[in-house]
Known about the structure:
The complex is a heterodimer. By secondary structure, chain A is an all-alpha fold.
Amino acid sequence: MKRNSVPFWIGAALFLFAIALMTQIIDNQYPFFAGYVILQFVVLAVAWSILGGYAGYVNFGTSAFFGVGVYTAVLLFKAAGAPLAVQIAAAAIVGAFLGFAVGLLTLRMQGIFFSIATIALTIVIETSVTNWRYLGGAAGIQMQRPPVMAPFHSYVQMLFFVQALLVVVAVAIARYIQGSWIGRGLQALKDDELAAECTGVPTLRLKLLACVISGALMCAAGAPAAMYLQYADPSSAFNLNYSVTVLAMSLIGGTAHWAGPVIGAILLGVTQQLLAVTISSEVNVLVLGIMLVLFVVAAPEGLIGLVRRFRRNRAEGEA
Amino acid sequence: MMAAGATEIPLLRIGALTKRFGGFTALDNVSVDIRPGERFGLIGPNGSGKTTLINCISGAFRTEAGTVLFRGEDITRLPPFMRTRRGIARSFQIPRPFRSMTVAENLMVALDFAAAADDRISAGQRRDSAMSILTQTGLASKANVSATRLSQVELRKMELARAMATHPKLLISDEAMAGLSSSEVDEVLDLLMSLASQDITIIMIEHIMQAVMRFSDRIMCLDAGKIIAIGAPAEVMANQRVQEAYLGT
């Protein structure tokens, strides 16, 4: 196991520096609007992979966690005028608890049953929020952005930077898990749950841990969305598209390495933004579907799997 | 190491164990003591409850009634991973390797999760430990090969090696020789013998009679979830009911 953390953290610092620099020198707001969405999907895809990739538990509840993040922020802002940092931190805590509760209820189910249970979760929570009048109910709720903080010139620029921070946090966590005993345990239980258990792996605890971390990150990623749109409504906050898109991004990138969902999210996210501008946002779903089918057939282990296969073949060719 | 009195306690005590699947009683009131250091053979026709019994011992199944005591401690309600950490390891009838890993990584899972629980050892020491177990089981040259590329006999050995890596006190080998050639059977048998000489108690489930006879201090024969004979190998083989169970009447 390689432990070259220095290049990783230098890369992360350079990434944040570049993002900060962008907010200072680019005047046009569009790159930040589009970039925010892409970064948000990077966080969601990385978070999804912790449970869906490392542990192999396919979670269709991304939209539930995302929506809960959105509405935690809405609730705190409306009730107490909480600042953005508090909204995100609170969303992460709520997400962790939700992940724990959902995990306890569903992680004993395996395969498709777990996935179905997570879809049900989305529907249950969306229905609850739709009927919660304080949060605007089905009609949604308008949000008034507070004044932007220096050194940023606009609120969207600030959200863009905040989401970039979340990317670094999510990737650092995913990377840590991958290289640690947690990652090895998750990989073992993904391969064979009974064999893992009989080899001393506390499978239920590890799955719960993955679900808690994944849930916390997803909720945190959702929290700034209300301020980004200045509006929240249940049918968009809990839109099943989040679940499907995030799943597609992770699978297309490959889930064996933390870089997979990052690459997948950037690739699909950029494509979607380009399509939304040039053709229409409806085409997105079609492209997503086609890409997913192509990858499932041609590269079931995603781009990461392709790269690994290529390297292995080359290594064997040299030997 | 062990006090003189401690050897009186059986390593494993199965008390009146009953396991049902719906209306079918797979194990019916099974009681047996396994002594420390014993080589214990478990035989019986297909469907007699052998694998069910070891699933109950390793914790894969919950039992309807009865108790499992390990070194005097009641482990009836413990999940499998806790039993593994207390010293019960097993192999599977159909090998269940971690397919995304190499052979050495398969062992590292055991060393990380089961063996490291009691003594704090460094990652380097664990890797050395994995290599020494692989050498002992004759898999050293396969350490960095994917588990999916092993032959049948290598898979069987890897299962035993992975079980060994948990540092067990009791090792349950579930038909580790099924489907092997006679020279391979001898290899696995020699391996089990050498493990038994290292102070590990072994329960061996096997259909290959010469192997069970050669290996075991004591043999138990199950039929339809009940013990029909238990004792020295020759005695059990001579038993009328055992012969009936195997040959039919």
